[in-house]
Specification:
12 helices; three-stranded parallel sheet; alpha/beta; six-stranded parallel sheet; TIM Barrel; 336 residues; 12 strands; 38% helix; globular
Length: 336
């Protein structure tokens, strides 16, 4: 049975921005004299580069200069396909639509060129300029035409929840293009980032994704776009039982019709980790909507480079369900 790593990462490099026209302002890399840290300068703001990087991996594998090396390492890990997410874009980078359009398009073109060299084993999630819906729709069309298998979204976008009608044009187009909207651990609100400055990262990056799930399901977005799939990525799956019960009580209070299975029937997919209580979670999610990712390239509480191999060893789950998590469910989520 093939395996799909549903959440792997690339580390952006100066090559990522080579597709931005010379007359436009490209992100520039700042390397202090001590050489310990590197920073990106984007639209007058400075962002740490590589704060969450797995430095045990060779740099060329992390930043995709050594694609053959990456594929060899995937072979060693027993991974057939990796679905690639960004690293820098997990936070807001600019409030200027034109700047965001340029960096999103350049990133996508970079991934197009990378994935074309991988013989189908590397697939990518497109970043689109979410602060301008006309541009976001155009970039989604471009990305899908060039092989993207999903659209990346932060848990918050400026001052808007993901159930805001502002995003409906993108959801409509994503539904037409058969691309899932993948809400990865992240935030797109500068004030939110500053509010939780110095904390562990849970409130900064994980909480917005949980809130996004609650908003999307509670506000009936899956009913408005019945063919649209949503992925909730790199936030474990332990929260599913709580959210299902919480929303069920709210629907009951408001005399709203409830879905038979809130996860499956809303076309929601969630990445798990190997230390999640999967038998318990599966009672609430069903067996068709859980996927797994290694967080390859990163080094945080979600990173588990051997995750797919370890899942095969979990004796409390039937082998056919493990096969679904490792392949069938991710294939369905990403339309592979």
């Amino acid at each position: 049975m093939p395996t799909i790593d549903a959440d792997a990462h690339v580390i952006e490099s100066e090559r990522t921005w080579e597709y931005i026209d010379a007359d436009q302002s490209r992100p520039s890399l700042i390397i202090p004299t001590d050489g310990k840290r590197q920073y990106w300068l984007i639209d007058g703001r400075v962002f740490n580069r590589g704060v969450n990087v797995n430095r045990e991996l060779p740099e060329g594998i992390r930043d995709m200069r050594d694609i053959e090396g990456r594929l060899r390492h995937m072979d060693e890990l027993g991974i057939d396909i990796q679905v690639l997410y960004p690293s820098l874009f997990l936070r807001p980078l600019t409030s200027k639509p034109k700047v965001e359009e340029a960096i999103c398009h350049s990133y996508n073109q970079w991934l197009i060129d990378i994935c074309r060299k991988s013989e189908g084993r590397l697939r990518w999630i497109a970043v689109v300029p979410m602060i301008n819906m006309e541009s976001a729709v155009a970039e989604a069309k471009f990305a899908q035409a060039n092989g993207a298998c999903g659209i990346f979204s932060r848990g918050l976008v400026e001052d808007k929840r993901l159930s805001d009608p502002f995003f409906f044009p993108l959801y409509q187009e994503a539904e037409r293009l058969d691309l899932p909207v993948c809400v990865h651990a992240s935030t797109g609100n500068f004030d939110w980032v500053q509010l939780f400055e110095g904390e562990s990262g849970f409130a900064r990056f994980k909480v917005p994704v949980l809130s996004a799930f609650h908003s999307i399901v509670h506000d009936g977005i899956p009913q408005k776009f019945p063919k649209l799939r949503f992925g909730f990525i790199e936030v474990r799956a332990q929260w599913i039982p709580y959210m299902v019960v919480e929303l069920a009580r709210r629907f009951e209070r408001d005399n709203r019709i409830q879905k038979q299975n809130m996860i499956r029937d809303n076309h929601v997919y969630v990445t798990c980790q190997t230390d999640d209580d999967l038998p318990y979670i599966l009672k609430y999610s069903g067996e068709d909507n859980i996927v797994i990712g290694s967080d390859y390239g990163h080094a945080d509480t979600s990173a588990e480079i051997e995750a797919l191999r370890k899942l095969k060893q979990k004796g409390e789950i039937e082998p056919r369900v493990i096969d679904k998590i490792l392949y069938d469910n991710a294939k369905a989520l990403y339309g592979l």
